Amino acid sequence: MSDAAVPHDKEAGFGDYIALLKPRVMSLVVFTALVGVLVAPGQIHPFIAMTAILFIALGAGASGALNMWWDADIDAVMKRTQRRPVPAGKVLPGEALGFGMALSGISVVMLGLATNLLAAGLLAFTIFFYAVVYSMWLKRSTPQNIVIGGAAGAFPPMIGWAVVTGNVGVEAVLMFMIIFMWTPPHFWALALFMNEDYSKAGVPMLTVTHGKKVTRAHVLVYTILLIPFAVGAAFTSIGGPVFLAVSVVLNGIFLLGAWRIWRRDEVMAAADKYAVEKQVFKFSLLYLFLIFGAFLAEAALKPYGLGGW
C-alpha cells in the first residue's frame, strides 16, 4: 500500500497517533490483561505488573496501527471508519506502518525483559495474528473472519496470567475461551445493523455472504456455546459463588437477547431501526466487562475467606 493511496491533508498531530492505537479496543485489552495478572496465582511486584500492562497495551496499539495501515482502502468506504487517521488523510499509510512496527518491537522486547519469554511470545503471536492472519488474510477472504480472528482479542488475559506464572493454566484457557466465544455474537449483532457498510467495502461478513437470517441463527448458536465456558469458569480456582451468580444472570440476559434477535425478521428489524440488535450489541460490551469484573471480585474477597469455594 503506497502513501499516495490516501490524501495527506496536513501534518499528523499527537491525537491522530493516539487514534491509530484504537483506544477503545485497547481499554478492553488492558482490562482483561489486568484481570489475568490479578487473578493468577503467585506474587509479582506491583511496578512489574503495571509495566507489563503498559507493554501489553502498546502491543494492542501496534496491532491497531497495522490494521489501519492495511485496511485504509476499505476504511475509507465504510461510514463507521472513514474518519480514522489514515483514510481521513491525517496520517500517511507508511507512517502508520512504521509506527505499528516500531511499537510491536518495543512492546514485545520490553515485555520479555520485564517479565518472561512466554508472555513476550504470546504478545508477539497476538500482534502477528491480528495484523497478518486476521487483517491481511481472514477479514477479506472468509465469512468466518470474526470467528477465527476473535482469537487475537482473547489472548490478553492469557498473557497477563503468563506474566505472573510463566505458564498457561486451565483458568487462562477458560478466560481465553470466554472472549473467543463472545466475539462472534458481539460483532454479528453489530453487522446486522451495519451491513450496508460491509457490503460496500466488499468485506465478506456473514451478513453479506449468507444473509441476515443465517447470521441471526449464528448469533444464537454462539451465545449458547459461550455459556458453558462462562459458567464453568465459576468452578475453577478463579471462580466462586459471586462469579457464578453474576455469570448466570449475565448469560441469561445475553441468551434472551440472542433469542430475540433469532426470532426477528428484517421487516420487524427495519420497523424499529434494529433496536434489539443495537441493544444486544451494547449489552455484549457490558457483559464482558462485568464477567471479568466478577473474576476480580472473587480475587478481592479471597484474602478475607469469602471468595472461591
Automatic annotation (TrEMBL):
<feature type="transmembrane region" description="Helical">
    <location>
        <begin position="117"/>
        <end position="138"/>
    </location>
</feature>
<dbReference type="InterPro" id="IPR044878">
    <property type="entry name" value="UbiA_sf"/>
</dbReference>
<dbReference type="InterPro" id="IPR030470">
    <property type="entry name" value="UbiA_prenylTrfase_CS"/>
</dbReference>
<feature type="transmembrane region" description="Helical">
    <location>
        <begin position="283"/>
        <end position="301"/>
    </location>
</feature>
<dbReference type="GO" id="GO:0048034">
    <property type="term" value="P:heme O biosynthetic process"/>
</dbReference>
<feature type="transmembrane region" description="Helical">
    <location>
        <begin position="172"/>
        <end position="193"/>
    </location>
</feature>
<keyword id="KW-0808">Transferase</keyword>
<feature type="transmembrane region" description="Helical">
    <location>
        <begin position="214"/>
        <end position="236"/>
    </location>
</feature>
<comment type="subunit">
    <text>Interacts with CtaA.</text>
</comment>
<keyword id="KW-0350">Heme biosynthesis</keyword>
<comment type="similarity">
    <text>Belongs to the UbiA prenyltransferase family. Protoheme IX farnesyltransferase subfamily.</text>
</comment>
<comment type="pathway">
    <text>Porphyrin-containing compound metabolism; heme O biosynthesis; heme O from protoheme: step 1/1.</text>
</comment>
<feature type="transmembrane region" description="Helical">
    <location>
        <begin position="91"/>
        <end position="111"/>
    </location>
</feature>
<dbReference type="InterPro" id="IPR000537">
    <property type="entry name" value="UbiA_prenyltransferase"/>
</dbReference>
<keyword id="KW-1133">Transmembrane helix</keyword>
<dbReference type="InterPro" id="IPR006369">
    <property type="entry name" value="Protohaem_IX_farnesylTrfase"/>
</dbReference>
<dbReference type="Pfam" id="PF01040">
    <property type="entry name" value="UbiA"/>
</dbReference>
<keyword id="KW-0812">Transmembrane</keyword>
<feature type="transmembrane region" description="Helical">
    <location>
        <begin position="145"/>
        <end position="166"/>
    </location>
</feature>
<feature type="transmembrane region" description="Helical">
    <location>
        <begin position="242"/>
        <end position="262"/>
    </location>
</feature>
<feature type="transmembrane region" description="Helical">
    <location>
        <begin position="25"/>
        <end position="41"/>
    </location>
</feature>
<dbReference type="GO" id="GO:0008495">
    <property type="term" value="F:protoheme IX farnesyltransferase activity"/>
</dbReference>
<keyword id="KW-0472">Membrane</keyword>
<feature type="transmembrane region" description="Helical">
    <location>
        <begin position="47"/>
        <end position="70"/>
    </location>
</feature>
<dbReference type="GO" id="GO:0005886">
    <property type="term" value="C:plasma membrane"/>
</dbReference>
<protein>
    <recommendedName>
        <fullName>Protoheme IX farnesyltransferase</fullName>
        <ecNumber>2.5.1.141</ecNumber>
    </recommendedName>
</protein>
<comment type="function">
    <text>Converts heme B (protoheme IX) to heme O by substitution of the vinyl group on carbon 2 of heme B porphyrin ring with a hydroxyethyl farnesyl side group.</text>
</comment>
<keyword id="KW-1003">Cell membrane</keyword>
